[in-house]
């Protein structure tokens, strides 16, 4: 059985359309650009992972702090920002060692799993969220 040239063209166009929808399709929620600085006792927190977890269902955004403690949230490979709405903010410096154990956490438990876990409200446009953490908690 052989396919005619128009049939092959039709199949190719259909496959390309499906791939485009799969890779770029879907509705992106309203995002706000979120950025800021994380400090611990006044010093920049370097290479911390920041995660904005929506209080309602939805995809989280994440970022890593640079050598100045600065971060900018990333929603997806192609988009900066975080969903508009309320978020719980998780900040951690822990890494996994060669044995799979978490090591190197410098963020106090108060801010990671206690009453000090930050919450923010992301709005459309630019949102600056600075987290000034202290070890006396």
Give a written overview of the molecule:
This protein has 137 residues and is of the alpha+beta class. 18% of the residues lie in helices and 40% in strands. Strands 1, 2, 5, 8, 13 and 14 form a 6-stranded mixed β-sheet that branches. Strands 4-3-9-12 form a 4-stranded antiparallel β-sheet, with no helix packed on it. The model is unreliable at 9-23 (pLDDT under 50). It has one domain (31-133): Immunoglobulins (Immunoglobulin-like), CATH 2.60.40. This is Carboxypeptidase regulatory-like domain-containing protein. Keywords: Signal. Residues 1-22 form the signal peptide.
Helix and strand arrangement:
Blueprint lengths: L4 H20 L6 E10 L2 E2 L4 E6 L6 E4 L5 E3 L1 E3 L2 E2 L1 E2 L1 E8 L2 E2 L5 E2 L5 H4 L6 E4 L2 E4 L2 E3 L4
Parallel strand pairs: 1-13, 1-14
Antiparallel strand pairs: 1-2, 1-5, 1-8, 3-4, 3-9, 6-7, 9-12, 10-11
State the distance separating the first and last CA atoms: 75 Å
Relative strand content = 35-45%
As a whole number of angstroms, the C-alpha radius of gyration is 21 Å
Helix-strand category: alpha+beta
CATH class: Mainly Beta
Mean pLDDT: 87
What level of helicity do the residues show?
10-25%
| Count of DSSP-assigned helices | 2
In the predicted model, the low-confidence regions spanning at least 5 consecutive residues are: 9-23
**H and E order:** HEEEEEEEEEEEHEEE
- Main sheet specs: 6 strands, mixed
Tell me the CATH architecture: Sandwich
Keywords: Signal
Protein name: Carboxypeptidase regulatory-like domain-containing protein
Organism: Calycomorphotria hydatis
Signal peptide: 1-22
């Amino acid at each position: 059985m052989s396919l005619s040239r128009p049939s092959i063209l039709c199949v190719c166009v259909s496959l390309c359309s499906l791939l485009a929808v799969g890779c770029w399709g879907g509705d992106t929620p309203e995002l706000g650009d979120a950025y800021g600085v994380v400090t611990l006792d006044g010093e920049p927190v370097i290479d911390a992972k920041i995660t904005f977890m929506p209080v309602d269902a939805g995809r989280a955004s994440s970022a890593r702090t640079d050598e100045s403690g600065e971060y900018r949230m990333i929603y997806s490979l192609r988009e900066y920002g975080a969903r508009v709405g309320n978020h719980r903010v998780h900040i951690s410096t822990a890494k996994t060692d060669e044995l799979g154990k978490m090591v190197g956490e410098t963020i106090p438990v108060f801010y990671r799993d206690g009453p000090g876990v930050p919450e923010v409200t992301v709005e459309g446009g630019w949102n600056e969220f600075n987290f000034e953490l202290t070890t006396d908690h």
